[in-house]
Amino acid sequence: MSSTAGKLVTSRSELNIEDYLPSGSSIEEPRGKLRLLDLIDISPTLTEAAGAIIDDSFTRCFKSNPPEPWNWNIYLFPLWCFGVVVRYCILFPLRCLTLAFGWFIFLSTFIPVHSLLKGQDKLRKNIEVELDSLFLLCLHCRVLVEMICSFFVGSWTGVVKYHGPRPSIRPKQVYVANHTSMIDFIVLEQMTAFAVIMQKHPGWVGLLQSTILESVGCIWFNRSEAKDREIVARKLRDHVQGADNNPLLIFPEGTCVNNNYTVMFKKGAFELGCTVCPIAIKYNKIFVDAFWNSRKQSFTMHLLQLMTSWAVVCEVWYLEPQTIRPGETAIEFAERVRDMISLRAGLKKVPWDGYLKYSRPSSKHSERKQQSFAESLLARLEEK
Length: 384
Hints:
Protein name: Phospholipid/glycerol acyltransferase domain-containing protein
Pathway: Lipid metabolism
Main location: membrane
Family: Belongs to the 1-acyl-sn-glycerol-3-phosphate acyltransferase family.
Organism: Brassica napus (Rape)
Strand content: 5-15%
């Protein structure tokens, strides 16, 4: 019995593809022709290309995962229809009224204060002499901005749970957080009036940036303007030195990521020579995906999507402040803080620069790949 098994094993190990061909056939081809085996010899290039398509970890950072359909039978479909009616015909109008009421209170109080701070030069000089009055006006602006952000969160039926001590106004400190949507700023701002570093937006968002948010010390920039980087860097250094300035908030990823991953942190926030306070933000996608894909959706439509959902559920962790260690570079410091945020929020780290989202691959890189592939193929053919 054992000898028979041994023969079977031996015969199986000696089988090859020619055993399965019709009698008289062979896989050998005349010399000079390219065989499948020759293509396999250049498989490293093909494997790299296939791997880039199958495991594209960069593109996955900026894709929203559509919810699984659950209204797939006659029993669940009526419940889904009932939910649509409730969300669009009852909750959405109530949320619009809530937000409109908040704007009414905010504008009726903010416009007089803003007029005093942005009025005539002579009036501003008189106010600046009275430091106590100026401080009270600024404090009033902070409270109003926190209030309108609270109304925004209420218009989504936001359920936000905060962990850790509330941020305070201190010099030489900066707060950094992972970035999923522009609503990250609203969620954080309703607790503390941060001065945020943000891309300048057009439309009604840009109007709010240049009027309301500017009153709390926010700083704007354009990615297309190289000079803006130097200006922003100088404003950052000046802001963190002020004892009465609002806490500085930076999203070092530089772009919105889908709350499943974290991309590389820009080192600018970690070169200021001040304490870095990490903030981890994690959204629960049970009711709605809070990720904002700015290339496919305007911010207005993004807000409408949130306002027509059941609720926005979110957790925020204020983590332990960090300082740069002796011998540690700004890049290493940024990676260490990214590790803390990723671990706390349960996000996966990927070694990508988020700004690649806004640029096309270099033509030189594509040409080098093409040249390498052509050389491999020609070398194989010349051997024949």
